[in-house]
Write a structure and sequence with these properties.
The protein is mainly β and about 170 residues long. Helix content is about 0%, strand content about 50%. The chain has one helix and 15 strands, in the order βββββαββββββββββ. The chain has one helix at about 65-70; strands at about 5-10, 20-25, 35-40, 55, 60-65, 75-80, 85-90, 100-105, 110-115, 120-130, 130-140, 140, 145-150, 155-160, 170. The chain has a four-stranded antiparallel beta sheet, with no helix packed on it. The chain has a four-stranded antiparallel beta sheet with strand order 8-9-10-11, with no helix packed on it. The protein is globular. The two termini are about 20 Å apart. The relative contact order is 0.12.
Amino acid sequence: IFGAHVVVGAVGGGAIFQGSAYLYELSSATPTVPVATLNNPAPTFDDGFGYAVAIDGNTLVASAPGVGTNHGAVYVFVRTGTSWALQQKLTHADNYTFGTAVAVSGDRLAIRQNGYIVSDARVHVYERSGTSWTFKNLSVAYNDEALALSGNNLAWTGKVTAPSGSKDVIV
């Protein structure tokens, strides 16, 4: 959710179960009709496109953790006017189900990668410069901000202190 915009992922749609991401504008005259539909630019069978989605301003992110036999990919789209275009496809060399959760804030992008077991999950942090996204690190804290990871959810949260006994993991 960003302002009046909501992005919803629909995994398994389409002829080859590739999925889609739908953008809704809640302040429009028809808030239940998508104002944009984004699809994987190179769909493969059961790629899971739309598994995790996020939006911030004119940047929309959609993951496809099934790409490359469950190695995963994350697609970053940017809006110019009313049109959305692919800015970059992100993958990571040591990944396993890369893209199980995503969060975007300005020129920063966090991508969860599950391990072979849930406790092996990592968060990859990318930063945009111009039109390119570059891998920065596996981060616990990033530029005095924190990421909250809870189950398969991920969000930029600002400065966070986890309360005692919290089940959320701050990474």
